[in-house]
Amino acid sequence: MGDVGWSVRQTGDGGYIIVGSTSTYGSGSYDIWLIKTDSTGRVEWSRTYGGSEWDVGWCIDETRDGGYIIVGATMSYGSGHYDLWLIKTDERGLILWNLTYGGAQWDVGYYVQETREGGYIVAGCTRSMGSGDWDALLLRVDAEGGILWAKTYGGPYEDGAWHAIETRDGGYIIAGYRTPRTGGLADAWLIKTDGEGSITWSIIYGGDGDDWLFSVEELRDGYITAGSTGSYGAGDYDYWLIEVDEEGHILWNRTYGGPGREIAWKVVKTRDGGYILIGGTTTYGSGDWDIWLLKTDGEGRPQWNETYGDMGRDRGWGVEQTRDGGYILVGYTTPQGARHWDLMLIKLEAKNIRRTRSILILLTIFLISSTTLTLYGIRKLKFGDIKVPMKRPSLFKIKLSLSLPEHPFFHHA
Asked: Which of 84, 101, 214, 307 could form a disulfide with 109 if both were Cys (CB 3.0 to 4.6 A apart)?
């Protein structure tokens, strides 16, 4: 139980908007938690959304009208066990409209992006629709929350989508996973669609272990995608970074990690032509899990990396390069021996060196009123200085699952 940050964006005023989940505040077991801070991490306002059950916010995007779009899942509303929940707010977090989508089973939204035409594209997973136990879901919604179309992708077993973005040609690229058989291991999956969600191409990447993709971005002439691999690399799971061409063929790929588990949750293109990855590590750092931030050049060669955490469990879920050239990170921290999580927000300065000179912000936030938060504690964390093993797995066989990385709020049932 506790409070977690899943996604962060720098806002037009130089501050930050964070979405996560909270069991401390709100009206239910878990509520969606939206927090707006200034550029130094001082909380300006916060909101919770939810009913009496579990409600989780996974992703946020600032919209062109100055408001925000949130996607997640709700047990409090809708027609099923979990329904996908899309919430549009104004610039102060007041709800303008909201949409639940799903059937009698589990339906979850993991990623949302505002499209160029207006409206939104949502990626997620569905157990209510499609052809299998779980299917990947792509949902297109207009600017007022009206459903334009919905597509599912998958076979008879467990498949899902974690991330989808609009591409320059007006279509979409989806990162996710697919399973070849009941109880089978996952394979990483990229799907390219046209503007109506019809598949242009679909490619599976993987080996004998669990492999999945959690994040994808478009490049000038292809895509960069990241996740984790249990088939290749040095340990149980390693970070996995893959560049593919416009048709999904691998140009290069690299793994990063040690003998433990490394789960890469997000990759972001950086302005110097490289990439920044965030996730968690059990190999490096000082705790059970530590946040692991890895910076590479444009060919995936490591430039620097840092771990952040104490002796408990710490995970990084969101990262974005800020306008000053630094980075903003969000995740959670668990003190050693504790049974709760606290949301953690970290601002890093711009750097071209290996070690981080300062960690500016770690927030443990206490409620004053339903819309006002204040800082309770600010402290510096230890960080690691490690060497990154780098592997080049041999090329992949095509097949289509997921043993999910430990996730405190949602597991496929």
From this structure: 84
Residue 411, domain member (yes or no): no
Give the sign of the dihedral formed by CA 124, CA 319, CA 254, CA 412: negative
- Whole domain around residue 158: which residue ranges? 3-391
**Residues 6+ positions from 405 with CB-CB distance below 8 Å:** 228, 237, 261, 263, 280
Element containing residue 353 per DSSP (H, E)? none
Overall domain count for the chain: 1
Burial of residue 367 (CB within 10 Å: 0-12, 13-18, 19+) is middle
Q: How confident is the model at residue 182 (pLDDT cuts 50, 70, 90)?
A: low
CA-to-CA dists, residue 75 to 23, 53, 313, 405, angstroms: 14, 6, 27, 22
Residue 271 has what DSSP assignment? T
The pTM score is 0.85
Decide if pLDDT at 261 tops 60.
Answer: yes
| 210 vs 250: CA distance, rounded Å | 19
Which pair of structure tokens corresponds to residue 230? 């249990």
Whether 379 has a pLDDT exceeding 50, the answer reads no
